[in-house]
Each structure stands twice: as C-alpha cells, then as structure tokens.
Amino acid sequence: MDFHTEFKPLTVQPQEIEGKSFEIITEELGEHPFTEEQYPIVQRVIHASADFELGRSMVFHPDAVEAGIRAIREGRKIVADVQMVQVGISKPRIEKFGGSVHVYISDPDVIEEAKRLNTTRAIVATRKAVKEADGGIFAIGNAPTALLELIRLVKEGVARPGLIIGMPVGFVSAAESKEELAKLDIPFITNVGRKGGSTIVVAAVNALSIMAEKRG
Amino acid sequence: MDFHTEFKPLTVQPQEIEGKSFEIITEELGEHPFTEEQYPIVQRVIHASADFELGRSMVFHPDAVEAGIRAIREGRKIVADVQMVQVGISKPRIEKFGGSVHVYISDPDVIEEAKRLNTTRAIVATRKAVKEADGGIFAIGNAPTALLELIRLVKEGVARPGLIIGMPVGFVSAAESKEELAKLDIPFITNVGRKGGSTIVVAAVNALSIMAEKRG
C-alpha cells in the first residue's frame, strides 16, 4: 500500500490497553455486591458497554458461573439468539473444549414454521435450539420473545439448559422477560432493567470461556 | 416438533413492539437538540441501547445525514471495523441500491501485514478499506486505533470517506478518538464519551438505510 507516511510501531500494545481498562473499571466501580467468581463477568460487561449502571444491574443465580464454566469445558453447544451474538463469541477457546456456537433464527425451516404459525422466528428458533442444544448455554441479547419461550419450556420441564444468559435490550418486554428469568431455579445470568444487548451477552460468554481456559 | 403445549398466535406483532418502543423513546426523551433529520438516528440508537444518555451524547456534522443517505442511494461500499457490525447491518435495503457491506480485519493479507509491522489489524484493515472503499461509509464501533488511523489519513488527504460513523466503546483511547473525529470538516456521526459499540453503530447505519429507502 502506498501512503504518504509509514506505519509507526505501536507504543501501547492491545493487551496493555485491555489491562489498563480493567484497572480503571475496578477503581471506578469501587465496592460492589459480586462474588470473586462473578466479578470477571461484570468487569467484561462494563468493558464492553462503558456502563457501570449496567454492570451493577447484573444478577446471578448462585450456580451460574460454575455451570457456565462446566458447560464450556464439557464442550456443550452455545446457542445465540441472533447472528451478531454468534460472530462476537470468541471461537478458539470454545472449540478447544469441543464446543461450538449456533444460531437458528435464519434457518429456512424456522422461517417457514414461524410464518405458518404466525409467531416470531425467535420463538421457533428457541424451540429448535431446545431440541438440538439442550444442556448448553443459551445466550440471548435481543429477543425477549425467545427468552420468554425458553422460560416457558423450562417451567414445563421440556427444556433443561445448562445456563441461560438472558440480557435482551429494549423498551417493550425486555425488562419483564428478565424478571421472569430471575425467578427460575436453574443457572442464569441476567440484569435488571431495559439495558443489555448483543455485545453485553458476548462479553459474558467470553468472560466465562476465559475462566474455563484458566482451569487448564 | 413435539412440545407439551401448542404455539399461540402472537397478540402483539413485532412491528407494533417497535412502534410502541419508538413512542416511549420520544416521550421519555422530551426536548432534545437534534434536527428532524438527525432524530431518527438518535431514536434508533436509544432503541438499541435503552440508554438516553448515550443518545443525547451524539454529535453530527451538519452534512452527515444527507451524506449518509446519498452514499447508500449511490450504492457506495459500507466498511465495518469488526464482523459484529457487518452482520448486524440490514442488507436488503443496502443491496437494493447496489451497495454492500465489507469487513477487512480478518483478511489473511491484513493479519500478515499487521504482524510484519507490529501494529494492530484494525489499523491495517483501515488502510485496506481506504484503498478499496473510499467514498463509502466507515462504520467503526470497536477499534479506536482504526478510527484514529482513518482520521490521520483524512488529514493527509489520502482518505475521502463519504461518511464516518465513529462510536467505539472503551476506557482507553475511545473518547479521545471521537474528540478527534468531531474536529474534522467532513461528514461524521459520533458521540461524546466512552460509550458506543457495535450495536450502536449498526443502529445508526440501519436508520440511515431506512431513510434512504423512504426517499423512494
């Protein structure tokens, strides 16, 4: 490539930037209610959002972190509600343990079934995921309907996910769907309120996979 | 699929949920400093983040919205800094005008060049994008180094993007890179502070493409 100026070698490496960011987060967050094993997930969520309020709004089932690490180390499937979540999740750490990341919302059979039933693709994709990836990690950052359907299937005893990370963003149904999730007695990671989204759920999954890798 | 219960047809359609969300946003936002043409972009950013503070922090070059609509209608390339941004952008409206969405950060030649020069893939990908997609829309949600490199190339007169949407999130360099962007006298959309991210930049691009389509 021919540009006027030459590249300069970096004075600060990307790894150093991440380390510095994590220091700032810990310093500015100060006291917090999270356990030692929950904190790396909160920290990475704040890193991805620059939003301390969002970080502080997180809620963990007591078994959530262990269940997530276990699911990753056992190579269980990870199900994303949308493609942005799927591509954002760091694959090498997941694949090292034999795992894989799936998204069903654009599958032709899901699209067809949703039309036929006059319902959302997110709901039909959740049902497909429960059949194909039960015991896995469900990572929902967008579709409250997907989360509500998954909760319903858990209550009916049909779905047995290893961990639900449910943090959809939005003004209609998102906060309510997370309230319902927080009532379940199975491993979940969620937050209180409207905020959330794909980048937030990706941050939580990536934090878990880093913790899984550290176990060696 | 065989589940205990049957699907119920939806009582609220997804389109209605979006409409209702937009009403809530307009009501809760109240008075704001944005023009009529800027507001749909702010509204969609708030919709994607549930964060009014982030919406209010947005800054527009006076020609930004027109330049973005024009670039889309002329079928100019859209360049994403990361794959999450690429997959999040709604393609049918872009492709209708002959446009396409690109991401260079994982190209083998970019990875190799970054290693050779001891710099970030984001910087090298920006240089490649300037060669292959100049005049297009640069959508940067993650990498402050990509944005700073693009700003440098604009100042040198090497890069002539149609519009820069620069809203990287982060604790180190992100806010500073956006301050630099806001000093340029070419079309830009950005925000003040640490917040931003892939979903935010995607929301801005999708808002522009909806406006482009409405022009008929």
Automatic annotation (TrEMBL), chains A, B:
Pathway, per record: Cofactor biosynthesis; adenosylcobalamin biosynthesis
Domain Cobalamin biosynthesis precorrin-8X methylmutase CobH/CbiC: residue ranges: 16-209
Annotated keywords: Cobalamin biosynthesis, Isomerase
Keyword Isomerase carried by entry: yes
One record GO biological process: cobalamin biosynthetic process
GO MF, any single term: precorrin-8X methylmutase activity
Pfam families the UniProt entry points to: CbiC
InterPro entries assigned to the protein according to its UniProt record, in alphabetical order: Cbl_synth_CobH/CbiC, CobH/CbiC_sf
SUPFAM superfamilies documented for this protein: Precorrin-8X methylmutase CbiC/CobH
Keyword Isomerase carried by entry: yes
Family per record: Belongs to the CobH/CbiC family.
Annotated protein name in UniProt: Precorrin-8X methylmutase
Natural source organism: Aneurinibacillus thermoaerophilus
Taxonomic lineage of the native organism: Bacteria, Bacillati, Bacillota, Bacilli, Bacillales
